[in-house]
């Protein structure tokens, strides 16, 4: 197995302290948003054999296994991250596989440069993802029932919100959600800015269920995404709980530290809370206008101590081991590629001692004995 040296991305929304605290390093004063573990070309992990991308490219079947290579192609299908949000991320959705392929081919055919700020599809892959909380973790996930949002907005007592309240009380619910989100994203910018300012002040004054949206508005004053965010379920995960974000589900992470895993893709369509491009027609085509419970996941324990976060896709499978003092050695050998990440205590993986935030890549079929006292996350694929 290979010890990984991983890149930390300094996105503006990142916490300045959460990742350094986990790693046991001094904060730099700059945001440290995401630590990437994998073979993504944007920031591949480094090993003694070269970057992980180079290692996989040199012999995909040896590193990934024949079954994974046959099913997903000659690349590591997932990207594992530590994610530390100190401010809200952009409100966004991801396409499904067919939408991603069609969108990518269309933009390629039209000659839209890959690095163009208005490009929607950077690749032909979907981007389902899972976030597992290491600390209390706040986020937004999926539409809450429209009638509940109507009551929330009505409680602010703002006249300019009345049309949205009336629409949200109409039927059918999916049409109501579509009409309201469309109206928010296509409103006159000056009028919307005034409405958002009034909404922010009222949310700040009332607190309680309005407090998350007051904080969002503080970070993104005047942004229509503030109202779009109020259409969504607010979720507070406790450590060990997780959210799965499938295609078309609007979501945003607000605050906290977690382990995130996703299919290897950069495809994002934004709804707001960002200075970046918002393609409203394409966004409305991708969003699933379905209200419901966000579906907080808790791990399912197996007899050998593995706790699995069950998801409906195959490109990744995330689980964890909570190893008590004196626990027996676990044999984690698999015919698929793995990344093992320690998040607490001290865990020995083969010849490598892993402290919090340290990780290793285990090629398919390589012996993977782990022992020690702590918490170890295991990322692989589902075959």
Gap from first CA to last CA: 21 Å
Sheet having the most strands: 9 strands, antiparallel
Mean pLDDT figure: 95
Tally the beta strands: 21
What's the helix count?
A: 12
Estimate the strand proportion.
25-35%
What form results from the Cα inertia axes? globular
Give a description of the structure:
This protein is α+β, with helices and mostly antiparallel strands and 383 residues long. It is 28% helix and 28% strand. Strands 1, 14, 15, 16, 17, 18, 19, 20 and 21 form a nine-stranded antiparallel β-sheet that branches. Strands 2, 3, 6, 8, 9, 10, 11 and 12 form an eight-stranded antiparallel β-sheet that branches. Strands 4-5 form a two-stranded antiparallel ribbon. The radius of gyration is 22 Å and the shape is globular. It starts with a strand and ends with a strand.
